[in-house]
TrEMBL record, chain A:
InterPro entries: ABC3_permease_C (IPR003838), FtsX (IPR004513), FtsX_actino (IPR047929), FtsX_ECD (IPR040690). Residues 57-149 form the FtsX extracellular domain. PANTHER family: CELL DIVISION PROTEIN FTSX. Part of the ABC transporter FtsEX involved in cellular division. It is found in: Cell membrane. One of its GO terms (biological process) is cell division. Residues 173-287 form the ABC3 transporter permease C-terminal domain. The keyword Kinase does not apply. Its main location: membrane. Forms a membrane-associated complex with FtsE. The chain crosses the membrane at residues 21-44, 170-194, 215-243, 263-286. This is Cell division protein FtsX.
From TrEMBL, chain B:
GO terms for molecular function: ATP binding. Keywords: ATP-binding, Cell cycle, Cell division, Cell membrane, Membrane, Nucleotide-binding. GO terms for biological process: cell division. PROSITE patterns: ABC_TRANSPORTER_1 (PS00211), ABC_TRANSPORTER_2 (PS50893). NCBIfam families: FtsE. It is a peripheral membrane protein. The gene is ftsE. It is found in: Cell membrane. InterPro entries: AAA+_ATPase (IPR003593), ABC_transporter-like_ATP-bd (IPR003439), ABC_transporter-like_CS (IPR017871), ABC_transpr_LolD-like (IPR015854), Cell_div_FtsE (IPR005286), P-loop_NTPase (IPR027417). The lineage of its organism: Bacteria, Bacillati, Actinomycetota, Actinomycetes, Micromonosporales. Pfam families: ABC_tran. SUPFAM superfamilies: P-loop containing nucleoside triphosphate hydrolases (SSF52540). Part of the ABC transporter FtsEX involved in cellular division. The keyword Nucleotide-binding applies. This is Cell division ATP-binding protein FtsE.
Length: 292, 226
């Protein structure tokens, strides 16, 4: 009990003794962990968007303007009997126009410029496995009466690619910051070990156990890491509260909403990574500079 | 109590061994001087006994335990049975005499209550009664060495190692420290002292082991220096 008290008071003294370094360590740690948390959130976000959108995704087969009734019905039976296809919906020129009108209700000029009958009729095809678009495309590409085949997934993939690269950038930034944070932890521990070298020498001489000698240093780093993760979490929460739910509301409604639960889930991740990484770094540093 | 068997220690980059095939036995309760010129390898013996260095060859047995093959996590516990004083005292400058001695107890898990009982006793024993709350810089060299002896002895170790303990002290103060070590020896503690102070060796008339160039050249029961 008393040794615990000793260790804890040593931790506090240690953090305070070198307070500028401690603050630098906490800040880099916080930024790095916030980046990590953000990319974690983005990963979960992209994942939930994928399941949401891919479920509703279609392949649109637009028909020629001069398609015959025979061609149309033959294509329909062929599609309905296709093992790759889950569902086929026919969209007439009329329906296409109605849809177009509601979609661009904000732009009456655009709607007026397009006359009923100008928009092509199409089959909206849902695939059992959206990945198999290529097979569908190859199979029907040269069928009479088809103008083009469009995979909506391609469009979505572009969006996901952008989100994915943003996520990768966040991860890259997180790892660069993590390197800075690690070096700072190592340096802080070195300075701490140097300033306590006399105590450490006496402790070794009289036979204090290794954990007792090392614990204050390791805990010093862990406490800094945990404070860093708390700041990082506060940053993420502020980002969600003020930006995503505030000024960027319209954008986030377009994508799927980010829940508070997901944000909260990032805290144990960041605290765990922050604490563990600091502890390991401190311990490894002590191996070199303390030689207990 | 202490057994060196054909111990050879060569430091990395050294051209010749510091200790070369040294064998030596020390009984419980003995008082032994290791003497010899600088660089003869006598301080290496202290380092071997503390397990600060390991021999390249041979066996070191302390308290019936072969320490050369001891696992590193057992070393701290092993060191609790050994007290050690040095030429440069190695006191913590920001702690009082009392705190310096109590520190040695607290870091091995003894409670403050134990320290309050034991520390004044041992400070009294080394002749520092009344100076418990002085800082090292407020004490003379001899007094600082007494604090160091108190710290080494407060755990009642079986062995007390002293590496040139009088090296920084004037002759009179040196004699006082020797009287103190002699008193500690009379409580049954084995004392091993490394020195090149001929006056002291000649006055004490104890066992003398002389080392030259890493080899034992003399081992005499009631010896003198030269």
């Amino acid at each position: 009990m008393q040794r615990l008290k000793y260790v804890l008071s040593e931790v506090m003294v240690g953090l305070w003794r070198n307070v500028t370094m401690t603050i630098a360590m906490i800040i880099t740690m916080a930024v790095s962990l916030a980046m990590l948390g953000a990319s974690g959130l983005m990963y979960m976000q992209v994942d939930s968007m994928k399941t949401f959108y891919y479920k509703n995704i279609e392949v649109a087969i637009f028909l020629d303007a001069e398609v015959t009734d025979a061609q149309r019905s033959e294509l329909e039976t062929q599609l309905k009997g296709d093992p790759l296809v889950r569902e086929v919906i026919y969209e007439s020129k009329q329906q296409a126009y109605e849809k177009f009108k509601t979609m661009y209700a904000d732009a009456p000029d655009l709607v007026n410029a397009v006359k009923e009958g100008q928009l092509p009729e199409s089959f909206r095809v849902r695939l059992k496995d959206p990945e198999q678009f290529k097979q569908i495309f190859d199979k029907y590409e040269n069928t009479e009466g088809i103008e083009t085949i469009v995979d909506q997934r391609r469009l979505l993939d572009k969006i996901f690619n952008i989100l994915g690269s943003v996520q990768n950038m966040a991860l890259a930034a997180a790892s660069v910051m993590a390197i800075a944070a690690l070096l700072l932890v190592g340096n802080t521990i070195q300075v701490a070990a140097y300033s306590k070298r006399r105590e450490v020498a006496v402790m070794k001489l009289v036979g204090a156990s290794n954990w007792f000698i090392q614990a204050p240093f390791v805990l010093e780093a862990v406490v800094a890491g945990l404070i860093g993760s708390i700041i990082a979490f506060a940053g993420l929460a502020a980002f969600k509260g003020f930006l995503l739910d505030g000024s960027l509301r319209d954008l986030t409604d377009l994508l799927t909403r980010l829940s508070w639960g997901d944000v909260l889930l990032m805290f144990p991740l960041m605290a765990g990574v922050g604490g563990l990484v600091s502890a390991v770094t401190a311990w490894v540093t002590l191996r070199f500079y303390l030689r207990v | 109590m202490i057994q060196l068997e054909n111990v050879t220690k060569t430091y990395p980059k050294a051209s010749r061994p510091s200790l070369d095939q040294v064998s030596c036995g020390i009984e419980k309760g003995e008082f032994v001087f290791f003497i010899g010129p600088s660089g003869s390898g006598k301080s290496t013996i202290i380092k071997l006994l503390l397990h600060e260095v390991t021999p390249n060859q041979g066996k070191v047995v302390v308290n019936g335990r072969e320490i050369t093959s001891m696992r590193s996590w057992k070393i701290p516990h092993f060191r609790r049975s050994i007290g050690c004083v040095f030429q440069d005292f190695r006191l913590l400058p920001n702690r009082t005499a009392y705190e310096n001695v109590a520190f040695a107890l607290e870091v091995i898990g003894k409670t403050k209550a134990v320290a309050r009982r034991v520390v004044p006793e041992v400070l009294e024993l080394v002749g520092l009664g009344g100076k418990e709350h002085r800082y090292p810089h407020e004490l003379s060299g001899g007094e600082q060495q007494r604090v160091a002896v108190a710290r080494a002895f407060v755990n009642r170790p079986l062995i007390l190692l002293a590496d040139e303990p009088t090296g920084n002290l004037d002759p009179d103060t040196s004699i006082e420290i020797m009287r103190l070590l002699d008193r500690i020896n009379r409580t049954g503690t084995t004392v091993v002292m490394v020195t090149h102070d001929s006056n002291i060796v000649n006055q004490m008339r104890r066992r003398v082991v002389e080392i030259e160039s890493g080899r034992i050249v003399r081992d005499q029961a009631r010896g003198v220096y030269g």
